[in-house]
Structures are given as C-alpha cells and as structure tokens.
Specification:
mainly alpha; 3-stranded mixed beta sheet; 24 helices; 58% helix; DUF885 domain-containing protein; DUF885
Length: 597
C-alpha cells in the first residue's frame, strides 16, 4: 500500500513549561536538596501530630519553591503570583548548563534520602502518584548523569536559538517590575549564550560536536533571527505587552521601549552573532555525521534518552516491535474500509473548508462533549508565528500557562506550514481540544500538587495530543470511511518516522538506508526524505514522544475496555488517565483505576 507524505516535516509541539527550554540537561532542583531530608525528619518525630500527607506536601512544596525560584524564566512561566508561595524574586537569568556528573548524582542521592523518610502506603492516592513520579524522575536522572555532554542545547527543533525569542516574546508584564526583570533577563543573554558556547567547545573537545549539516542549520537559524533587523518581533511584542498590562503611562512606555531596543541591539543580537561565529568555527570538529549510535556509548545514551523523554521502560528493540504491530493494525484497518478510495479521501481532505482557527477550535470544543469530560472554563488567544521565523518553528505550539493563571491560554499557528484546512483542523485538535490545552486545563482543575508542574513527561503530553489529533479526524465533516483512511494514514506516517528515528539513532541507518526504507512504503521523493533524515538527526527521540506516547494511550484504552467490559466508557477512560496527570506510563497504568467511576 502506498502512503502519501504529509508536508509538514516537523511535528507540532507544545512549549513544555517554557522555563525548561533555557536549561540544558537536567533541571537543577536535584542539586540543592540536602536540607529537605532534615525537614522531613523533623516533622516526623515521635509524637508529632502532623500527618504523613502533611509532611509529604510540606516537602514537595519546598522542592517546588526551590526549583521555580532558580531563575526568572522558571518563576515567571510557572507562577503569576509567586508571593503566595513565599517567593519574592528569582535571579534574572535563563538557567545554566549542567556538566558536573558527580554533583547531579549527589543531588539525586540527597533527594532519595529525603523520599524514603515517607511511608508511601500512608499517603493519599494523589500523593502516592507524586511519590512515584519523583522516584521515577530520580531513577532517570541518575542514569542520565553520565551522559550530560551528549545533550544538545542547539537542537534544530527546540534549541535555544529558536525558542529563546518565543520565551521572551511571551514574557508577560503583570506589574511594572516584570518589565524591569525582563530587561535584566535580556541583558543576561550574552552570558547565557557564552555558557552555551563553552559547552559546545567542550563537546567538540570530547568528539561529541554536532554534524556539519546540523551546524549549518543552527547557523541558518541564528542568521534568520538577525535578518529580521528592526522588524524583529521582540520590538513589537514588547510594546503590545505593555499596552495589555495597563500598568504604564505613555511616557513610561516610550522610556521602556528605548531600553528594550537598546538591549536587543547591544546584547541580544551580538549574542546571536557570537553563537553563530562559534558554531561556524567548531563546524567540522564533530566525529559523527550520522545518528547517535555513531558516538561512543551512543546506543546506550539513546536508550536512556528515550526512557526519560517518552516515559517507558521497554528496550528500543521492543519499541520497534510495538511500532510495527500498531502499523500493521492500521494498514489492515485501511484495507478493510469498503467502498472508500485513497485518492477520493485525499481530494475530500483538500476540498474541506472549516473557516478560521477560532471557528475550528469552537467546533472541536463542542465536538468532544460526548467522549471527553466537561471542559473547564478558560480563555484562548490564537497568535501567528512571525513570517521571518516560519521556516524554523513548528507548525503550531501551545503555550502552557502559569499554574495559578491557567485561564489565560495561547496557541501559535505557523501559517507557512499549513497546507490545507484538514491540516489546520487536526493541528488545532493536537494543540487545543482535546489536545494540549484541554489536557492542561483539565489537570489543573483537579488542583494537583504544584511540584508536578516542574516535570516534563513528553511521552504522556505529546502522546495525548497525538491521540487527540487522531480522534479529531472523526469530528470532521468527512464520511467515516474517508476519515478512517486519513487517520490511519497519518498514524502510519508517524510510525514510519518513529521507526526511522530508532533506525537512524540506534540501528545506524545511513541516508541510503533511510531512503530505501521509505521507498518500501511508496515515499520516494529524495528531497523530502533528506529533510526527514536531517530533522531526526537534529532531534533524537523526538518522534517517539509523539508516536510511542500515542500507542501507549491506545494500549491503556484496550486494557481499560477489557476490564470494564460492558461498562466501558470512553469518557470515563479519558477522565481517569487525565486525572493521573503527566507521568511515566507505568505510573499512569497503576493509578488510573483509582479514578474509575
């Protein structure tokens, strides 16, 4: 069977808790918790009237506050009102690059010592989930510690060179002081980029620097930012944010606008120029032009990376088998659709007219009512990626709001990568309803422990959004047979990308191998395949978050249906997995039964 290629080579992605973007490697909370064990021990002394849940929640609040107050990006994108958590301020920096393996391991050990002071079986279900999430993260962090130099802060999909401008452009000014912090943060850009440059030099010395093609892509992305000149959206969005806040007089706005322009011209742009020059200088020092398996311990690192980012424990070989099984099921389903033809489905999709993004989101929100729990009240603003950056950013992304301000949501659409209304429809399902936005606001409505917000479980988050995207085909006006063909085709294409991801980074596929693989499925356009290869090369494991995460939700659904029998309800299944919240999939499977109704 021949499959037709979807033109957007990048998968749409969420801005996973934007504060994480500027920190290369592991988040730094693990480095500062020698004192938490003491807090836990003291609260648990004999005769104390403090319950185990209260002790545990006091501990997790300390962990949360320490993590989010580590830098201004973490704090601002996590809390609108930090004072309510006893946090007055945070250093006006983006973060830091982690390279000290022993320090990370020591931090993990400290947290583990604190964690084992709690009796898990005496905790509430919600706290038991948090306990397991913490334990899972610590296990993953310990395994990852020896691979810190393998990290790539300049990844072509979500590297700091493309994401930092978005982080800055969405930094809201709730008070005047926020604008001052923002300008101080901008002034630290040079120091942060210098730290990234030093890290890249270290990678080069260790023979771990990126391939020449990836270096060219990073240089191109930096140049694209610089080429915007006075049209750079960091100028216009700064003024817009001041106006939206209503906190500035016209005179103050003029003064701040001048300061913003000055720091862009004197700090930010020179930082990009230095980064570009450094990458150009280091280009060619990398020892590997293919996947991670071409590096020393590359296969081991890829396995650890996938375990951590996807939230699974299967080997890569097992994940390859899982992908092929699901792909065969989808192909069989496509072949079993009677009276529908692939070309007719393609033509119907191309002709489908659904209106504006706002109208599509309303249709999606209404359309999911029968199969998904009620949507919490919220607001949503649709924005568009600046034309100059369309080539370098994902087709769309959802901006996760502060946990105490979850009513204000933003979805960015990249019009340069939207080929038709069906693409827009399914992408908005992925980012909006019942995807990222819906999952985020539903989970926040359960009043989770704030510490859960500091973890990034990409397999759960992107897997759910992909699951939502696949569900959305059946909400289009297309006949069911055509919707099935299009949905199964989309699933198979993503499976091919996932297999290529594992093939390139774990099995050592060359460009020729990758071309031959896609040709088996009727995808033979050489230029497209080379773009796919380069994209996968620059973002190892990225497609597995989407596809394996999606398949894991399908498996959980089958498990739920088998156990519930005639009482099976899609709505209740969705409520259960959403109530557990972002976590490794074994944790989700363990606890989803607690939410059965």
């Amino acid at each position: 069977m021949r499959f037709w290629e979807k033109k957007e080579e990048q998968r749409s992605c969420t801005m996973q808790r934007m504060r994480k973007i500027c920190v290369a490697g592991l988040f730094l909370v693990v480095l500062g918790f020698g004192g938490c064990a003491e807090i836990a021990d003291e609260n648990g002394k004999a005769g104390s009237s403090v319950s185990e849940d209260e002790r545990f929640e006091a501990y997790t609040r300390e962990v949360f506050c320490s993590e989010v107050s580590a830098n201004a990006v973490s704090l601002h994108y996590t809390l609108k009102y930090p004072q309510e958590y006893g946090i007055e301020s945070a250093p006006a920096v983006y973060g830091t690059v982690v390279t000290d393996e022993q320090a990370v391991k020591a931090g993990v050990e400290n947290m583990e010592k604190a964690l084992i002071t709690f009796e898990k079986n005496k905790l509430s279900v919600e706290n038991q989930i948090t306990y397991d999430v913490l334990q899972s993260y610590l296990d993953s962090a310990e395994r990852s510690a020896e691979y810190l130099w393998y990290d790539e802060p300049l990844g072509t999909v979500s590297g700091v060179q493309t994401q930092l401008p978005v982080v800055l452009s969405e930094y809201r000014f709730y008070e005047k002081e926020d604008a001052d912090t923002y300008l101080d943060l901008m002034r630290s850009t040079g120091n942060y980029f210098d730290e990234v440059i030093a890290f890249e030099r270290g990678k080069s010395e260790k023979g771990l620097f990126m391939s020449e093609k990836l270096a060219d892509a990073v240089i191109e992305q930096c140049q694209a930012f610089l080429d915007m000149g006075n049209g750079n959206y960091l100028y216009s969005t700064f003024v817009e944010r001041m106006r939206e806040s209503g906190k500035f007089t016209e005179e103050e706005m003029g003064e701040y606008t001048k300061k913003n322009a000055q720091v862009i011209e004197e700090v930010v742009c020179p930082a990009y120029e230095r980064l570009m020059a450094a990458v150009r200088e280091l280009k060619g020092t990398g020892k590997n032009e293919e996947g991670l398996c071409g590096l020393p311990q590359g296969q081991e690192y890829y396995q650890v990376l996938v375990d951590q980012s996807v939230g699974t424990k299967e080997s890569i070989v097992q994940l390859e088998e899982l992908t092929r099984r699901q792909m065969e099921d989808d192909i069989t389903a496509m072949e079993g659709v009677l009276g529908a033809k692939v070309e007719e489905a393609k033509e119907s999709a191309a002709d489908m007219k659904q209106g504006t993004a706002e109208l599509i989101l309303k249709k999606l929100s209404d359309g999911i009512e029968k199969a998904f729990p009620e949507t919490p009240d919220t607001t949503l603003e649709v924005k568009y990626v600046p034309k100059e950056m369309e080539e370098h950013l994902s087709p769309a992304f959802y901006m996760i709001p502060a946990i105490d301000n979850s009513r204000e949501n933003v979805i960015y659409i990249n019009q340069g990568q939207m080929r038709d209304d069906l693409s827009l429809f399914t992408t908005l399902a992925h980012e909006g309803y019942p995807g990222h936005l819906y999952q985020t606001i539903f989970y926040e409505s359960t009043d989770p422990d704030p510490v859960r917000s500091i973890f990034n479980f990409g397999g759960y988050v992107e897997g759910w959004a992909t699951y939502a995207e696949m569900c959305s085909y059946y909400l289009t006006p297309l006949p069911k047979e055509q919707a099935t063909i299009l949905q199964k085709n989309g699933s198979v294409i993503l499976a091919l990308y996932a297999l290529a991801d594992m093939g390139i980074h774990y099995d050592g596929w060359s460009r020729i191998d990758t071309t031959a693989f896609f040709a088996k499925y009727g995808i033979s356009d050489a230029e497209t395949i080379q773009k796919i290869y380069d994209l996968i090369l620059g973002s190892p494991g990225n497609y597995l978050k989407y596809y394996i995460g999606y398949v894991k939700f399908l498996e959980l659904k089958k498990c739920w249906a088998e156990k519930m029998g005639e009482d099976f309800s899609q709505k209740e299944f969705h409520r259960a997995v959403l109530s557990v919240g972002p976590a490794p999939f074994d944790v989700v499977e363990t606890y989803m039964w607690n939410y059965a109704q």
